[in-house]
Amino acid sequence: IKWTExxxxxxxxxxxxxxxxxxxxxxxxxxxxxxxxxxKAYRQPDxxxxxxxxxxxxxxxxxSARRMAMPELPVDLFLAACDALVTQDRAWVPGSxxxxxxxxxxxxxxxVGLGVRPANEYLFVxxxxxxxxxxxxxxxxxxxxxxEEYVRAAPGGTxxxxxxxxxxxxxxxQAQAAEQGCDQVVWLDAIERRWIEEMGGMNLYFVYxxxxxxxxxSGSLLPGITRASLLRIAEDLGYEVAEGRISVDDWREGNEDxxxxxxxxxxxxxxxxxxxxxxSARASxxxxxGQPGEVTTKLRKALLDIxxxxxxxxxxxxxxxx
Length: 322
Ligand code: PMP
Hints:
Elements: E1 2-4, E2 8-10, H1 27-31, E3 34-36, E4 39-43, E5 49-52, H2 54-67, H3 75-88, E6 100-109, E7 121-131, E8 142-147, H4 164-179, E9 184-188, E10 196-199, E11 203-208, E12 211-215, H5 225-236, E13 240-244, H6 248-257, E14 262-267, E15 271-279, E16 284-286, H7 294-307, E17 318-320
Parallel strand pairs: 8-9, 8-15, 12-13
Antiparallel strand pairs: 1-2, 1-7, 3-6, 4-5, 4-6, 5-17, 6-7, 9-10, 11-12, 11-14, 14-15, 15-16
The structure holds 4'-deoxy-4'-aminopyridoxal-5'-phosphate (PMP).
């Protein structure tokens, strides 16, 4: 779907997958006005297909657009575009279970020009790809690198938007994590370098027995849809749930005195993944016994069961596509 200043959204098209042809002076290539979303369509037990909370992705996409000085795509157009693609690609939605069809809606500036200003033309596109189960051989914990040198997002920055530049700025820390033998980066706040924000592409949860805490929306972390869904599910399951501030010291000390029983990360791609070990320039420790914990396992199953239709959907989160 195209957007032009003065004309708005127009020319919705469903076309076979093919390269986009861009002018070398396309503004996106230079000034990075790009935003995206990620959501999944799951096969339901009756053979129909449903996406999980796509309205939430549509709303976050609008928030990202506002932050990046891009036009907002109406929620119904976002949903119609995703539905049209899923319907077209129905045969690519895996037959059942955790495997899914992953949807990647995105928007780029499509105007040609070298001046630094919001563009007057944009292109909204959705592509899809089948995604297998994230842990085909069983859930295994990830190791994380606490990034103290680099920050992902600062107050007033673009951290709450799903903007391409956030990910570009993260790559160097991801490479550092890999050099340190870790799977993922954990980001800290930009000011004190003390408060836990989030993981590379996931939000974090800290489990203290029956009490579950996730870092509050600080203004520089991405408000994950999985994170929001788990706040509800954990409450439904009888846990005491809170959003709060957790420091690196809280993490280490809670681990030492045994009050912190599990840590997990959550996001559309992996749903939930346990965090098994932590490393920073100054310290390293194993999270509890380093194995997937009981609460992590229970929440993962509860959420996946709703997504795949294996359990009732009490909050009306599934969007039937047909
Ligand atoms: N944080 C970041 C930086 C992410 O890229 C993602 C993935 N969209 C998340 C958190 C998790 O968000 P969601 O649960 O909506 O996938």
